[in-house]
Amino acid sequence: MQSGDTAILAAMDQEPMQTPNRQLKLREDPTACFYIIFGLVYEALSTPSPGDGSSNTDRKALVVTCLETLKSLVRPEYAGKAIMEPNIFDEFMSLSYRIAMTEPATVQVHLVEMLIVLASTQGNR
Predict the structure, then answer these.
(1) Is 78 buried (19+), middle (13-18) or exposed (0-12) by CB count in 10 A?
(2) What is the pTM (predicted TM-score) of this model?
(3) What tens digit of pLDDT does each residue of 22-42 get?
(4) Alpha-carbon distance 91 to 84, whole Å?
(5) What is the rounded distance in angstroms from the CA atom of residue 51 to the CA atom of residue 111?
(6) What ranges do the domains of the chain cover?
(7) DSSP class of residue 49?
């Protein structure tokens, strides 16, 4: 998704790759799979870390993977205007704030990168 591969965009739209020159474009509606993937990522990020400390490395890897996925998923080619809908945006910003307050700096770097992509690609909406 980060590379802008049109085959991935076609798969997210649940369409066969018809032309190799399919263009990435701004869209109004999200891709067909946007809500599914966004929901899975959101759920994974919303789940609190276990308190025993035994799987902190696994939790950190999960959060970083989710944030890397969001870095692409928030772009207009995939999200359309869906991420900017007031209810979704408010919940998403609340989750981002919680991550910023509870996760270590090594994870926060990925959060900031994702927020930069969101602001730079959806900013004019």
Answers:
(1) buried
(2) 0.81
(3) 555 667 889 888 999 999 999
(4) 11
(5) 22
(6) 6-122
(7) P
